[in-house]
Every structure is written in structure tokens, then in C-alpha cells.
Design brief:
Largest sheet: 5 strands, mixed
CATH class of the largest domain: Alpha Beta
Shape: globular
Structural class: alpha+beta
Number of strands: 18
Radius of gyration: 20 Å
Order of helices and strands: EHEEEHEEEEEHHEEEEEHHEEEHE
Distance between the termini: 7 Å
Number of helices: 7
Helix content: 10-25%
CATH superfamily of the largest domain: Uridine Diphospho-n-acetylenolpyruvylglucosamine Reductase, domain 2
Number of domains: 3
Length: 344
């Protein structure tokens, strides 16, 4: 496939955030904010915080694909106050904001991203209420951690999440799921912060959940801060741990974890499984540069060592075209594609 000029691909995500980035955060491309901030390129310490905004931070280390160019500005707040101050700083300079969680559902351009990238990985706290079996979790908490904490209490409801390498914020935004269960099954409400610094609490019914999406996806004005879930208590911890371990073992047996990936690349087009369509199209093992369709599970694209974001996107497009040619099915990406790409 040939595109005559650079193409901008926007990810409609509001992932904290998987992701959550927020695996699930939306990014709107804009001119480099250096045009607004002048020549300033030194780290900026936010007043009354221990929070530092850093320039030109390479994002490859923060994505599960291990690819991606630099963030123009990057910050990792530890508290809700630091998060609010970071957003206020971006507002002051009229630059876009993206939330990044585990980076596991994200493909960031080799050119990087303009604006302020807020990484939520240090926003971690959890509160388990034994009277109600409700658990409130911060946006940066990894899903596998939550699954094991619930298992230790004998609370059912999060066993399926043990193999998902994302964070709570991204999971809420994209309605993460596995093993015929998903976030929509257990979410009570989520607290969001708005682009103007306000706060709101949204019930699960406000999110209009569908398969792997919600109305927070593509919403530039609201970002997940924490979420409350309803679990089912009263089980033997050993029984819940056994079920959780079974899901973990199944994922490791059937999915490739030995090389960097984003998890599942495409949504399953009902009634088909995307991996089956790709495999039946003869694409297992197909490679562009160092990006490869996984042999173990065809809905995974692997970074075999030196893949670029451009390699991965070219392979995504090739798979889409081959599957459409053979099956008349256009595979919609589950991965969020962010920034400017040039495909030759």
C-alpha cells in the first residue's frame, strides 16, 4: 500500500488507558507547543508539588510495543493534586493532553507526540470495602494486581483480568475484557477529571458501553481518575486463586508473551475471530521489517527486535487488506494509533 504523503492517524481514546493510556486516552494532533512556550526546553517543576514536567521524553520505554518517538512534554504525577496541576499547566499554554497508562493498547508514531503526555502509572491506590464488596481503584493500578488482590480476599469478578497488561483507567475507557467477561459487568461508577480541572462521577449507565468501547473513548474533555467496582464476596480464596491462575495459564499458553506486542491488534468482527481470519488468510509469520504476525496467535503483531512504529502500521494495513480481499471483512483496530505516520 502506498500513501503519497504523511498521514495523521488519530486514536479515539480517553484510556486513563489501557490503558488507560491512559491506554485509552484520546489524542488530538496540534502544532508543537514550543511555538507557544518559546525556546524553553528545560524541565519545569510545578509550583507546590514534587512533580516535574520534562521535555522530549522518548515514549518507547512507556509502551508495550517498545516503539514510539518523543513526547514534547511528559509528566508522571503521584497524587490527584499533581494531576490537576499538570492539566492546569497544559491549559495555561493551550496545548493538548494525552493520558498514558500501561501503554499496552497503543501504537505511537516514530515522530512522537506534541503536547503534554500524562503518565498515570504512579496514580495507585486501592480501597476494598468488606461491608459491600466494593473496590475503588486508582487509574494507574495494573489490572493483574487487582485480580490477585481480589483473589486473596475470596472476591469474584476480576479473575478474567489477570492476563490483561493494562491499567484501570484504560480498561474503563475501552471496556476491556476477556473470557466472556468485561469491565461493563462490574463497574459501578468512575470519577473523572475534566480538561478545565473539574471533577465528576459517572455511573456505568452513563458510559454507553459496547464491545471494547465507551463514550469516554474519543472524549477530549474527561479523563478517568479512579473507578469503583462491585465484586462478589464469600468464596474460598483458594478457589478464586485457582480460577485466576487458570486464566493466566491459558493466556500464556495461547498468546505470545516472549516479545513486545500491544495485545490483540484487531477487534473480533462478529461472528468471526480476527485471529482465525488472519490465520486462514495465510498470514501467520508474515513480516514487514522487524514487525511480525505472531505464529502462536495471529491477532498479535510482534516487535521482533528493531521494529519501528511505521513497520507495525504497514503490517496492520497489509493484514486488513488481505483479510478484506479474501473474506470481505474489514478488521477494525483495537490498538490506538497515535501521531503522524508515513507509509511508503
Amino acid at each position: 500500500m502506498t500513501l503519497s504523503k504523511p498521514t495523521e492517524v488519530e486514536s479515539p481514546v480517553a484510556t486513563e488507558a489501557a490503558s488507560v493510556s491512559h491506554e485509552a486516552a484520546l489524542y488530538s494532533s496540534s502544532p508543537r507547543s514550543s511555538l507557544v512556550l518559546g525556546a524553553e526546553s528545560s524541565p519545569i517543576i510545578l509550583p507546590h508539588t514534587h512533580c516535574t514536567i520534562r521535555p522530549q521524553v522518548r515514549l518507547a520505554r512507556y509502551t508495550s510495543y517498545r516503539v514510539g518517538g518523543p513526547a514534547e512534554w511528559f509528566v508522571m504525577p503521584h497524587t490527584a493534586n499533581e494531576l490537576a496541576e499538570s492539566i492546569a499547566w497544559a491549559n495555561k499554554h493551550s496545548i493538548p493532553v494525552m493520558f498514558l497508562g500501561a501503554g499496552s493498547n497503543l501504537l505511537i508514531s516514530d515522530r512522537g507526540l506534541p503536547g503534554l503526555i500524562i503518565c498515570t502509572r504512579h496514580l495507585r491506590h486501592s480501597s476494598f470495602d468488606p461491608a459491600t464488596a466494593q473496590v475503588t481503584i486508582a487509574a494507574g493500578e495494573p489490572l493483574p494486581n487487582l485480580a490477585w488482590k481480589a483473589a486473596d480476599l475470596g472476591w469474584s469478578g476480576f479473575e478474567w483480568a489477570v492476563g490483561i497488561p493494562g491499567t484501570v483507567g484504560g480498561a474503563v475507557v475501552m471496556n476491556a475484557g476477556a473470557h466472556r467477561a468485561c469491565i461493563a459487568d462490574i463497574l459501578l461508577n468512575t470519577q473523572v477529571i475534566t480538561r478545565t480541572g473539574g471533577e465528576a462521577t459517572l455511573d456505568a449507565t452513563d458510559l454507553n458501553y459496547r464491545y471494547r468501547t465507551s463514550n469516554l473513548q474519543g472524549d477530549l474533555s474527561r479523563f478517568v481518575v479512579q473507578a469503583t467496582f462491585q465484586l462478589q464476596p464469600g468464596y474460598e480464596p483458594a478457589a478464586i486463586a485457582k480460577k485466576t491462575r487458570h486464566h493466566q495459564t491459558h493466556r500464556h499458553r495461547t498468546q505470545p508473551y516472549h516479545l513486545p506486542s500491544c495485545g490483540s491488534v484487531f477487534r473480533n468482527p462478529n461472528p468471526y475471530a480476527a485471529g482465525w481470519l488472519i490465520e486462514q488468510s495465510g498470514l501467520k509469520g508474515f513480516q514487514i521489517g522487524d514487525a511480525q504476525v505472531a505464529e502462536r496467535h495471529a491477532n498479535f503483531i510482534l516487535n521482533c527486535g528493531k521494529a519501528t512504529s511505521n513497520d507495525i502500521l504497514r503490517l496492520i494495513r497489509h493484514v486488513q487488506e488481505e483479510v478484506e480481499h479474501r473474506w470481505q471483512q474489514w478488521l477494525e483496530p483495537e490498538v490506538k494509533i497515535m501521531g503522524e505516520f508515513e507509509i511508503a
